[in-house]
Every structure is written in structure tokens, then in C-alpha cells.
Amino acid sequence: MQSDEEQIRALVSTWMAATQAGDAETVLGLIADDAVFLMPGRPPMYKSEFAEGMKAQAAPSAPSFEGHSEIREITVAGDWAFMWTRLSVTVKPKNGSAPMARDGHTLTVLKKQAGKWLVARDANMLTPSNCSGA
Q: What is the CATH number of the domain that holds 25?
């Protein structure tokens, strides 16, 4: 049986792979129903809004995503955990437009429900970064 930390690391790996594959259903299955996403300059986003965006990103004409998540810290306290990561994401539009890159830190609160870790809160502090187009 995997430790809590191993399960959380597996969640991050699954999230990244599913996002890059455009697998919205897998990503949404990793999120608690009452999840809240926080981003600079935007109002809080709830799971239903996140789901709309994820499903749009899975459309054939949607851009492709590449990303890397480096977990810097995971702390588990019972059925709650928090994680600090360094995340870089590149969005590549299908229409040939220049790629858009973002980089920065995230702070994620997870909760364990029915034996499964889920994202409950996520503060995404990514900002635009240089992108060579590669």
C-alpha cells in the first residue's frame, strides 16, 4: 500500500499526464466537489467553472499543453494535506500562434475522501514566462 505522500505524488503525475492528454474526466475525478481555485487578478473559481474550462480544452481544436510540476513539499495531517510546487506550463495553440508559457508556484490543499486524495483548494501563482516556441 502506498503512503499518503506517495498517493499525493501519484495524483500530481496523473493530473499532469491527463492534462497533457486532454483527458478532462480524469482530471475532474481528482478534484473535490467543493474545490476552490485561486489565481492572481481573478475571482475564485469553483469546480463547475473549472470543469467547463477543462472540457473546452479537450475539444479537437483546443491548444495542447506541456507542463512540469516539481513538488517542493508535502505535509500530511490526518485527512488533510498541503503541497507546495513549482509549476511550468506551455500552451500551444493549434492555429500556429505563438505558445504561451507560465511559470511559478502553487499551494494546494488536499483532503482524503473515501480513501482517495482530492484537490480541495489550489492557489496558482503562475505568471507569464519566456517561451522560445520550442
A: 3.10.450.50
Only one residue has cell 490543499, namely: 109
Which residues, in sequence order, are bridge partners of residue 73? Answer: 84
Strand partners, 45: 37
CA distance 63 to 42: 22
With cut-offs at 50, 70 and 90, classify the pLDDT of residue 1.
confident
Q: Give the C-alpha separation, 82 to 55, whole Å.
A: 26
The cell for 97 is 500562434
- The answer to whether position 73 is within a domain reads yes
pLDDT digits over 56-104, tens only?
A: 887 888 888 999 999 999 999 999 999 999 999 999 998 888 999 999 9
Q: If you ran DSSP here, which 8-state letter would residue 78 be given?
A: T
Pairing of strands 80-92, 64-77: antiparallel
Report pTM. Answer: 0.91
Phi, psi (degrees; rounded to nearest 5) at 12? -65, -45
CB contact at 8 A, 125 and 16: no
The label of the residue with cell 467543493 reads: 34
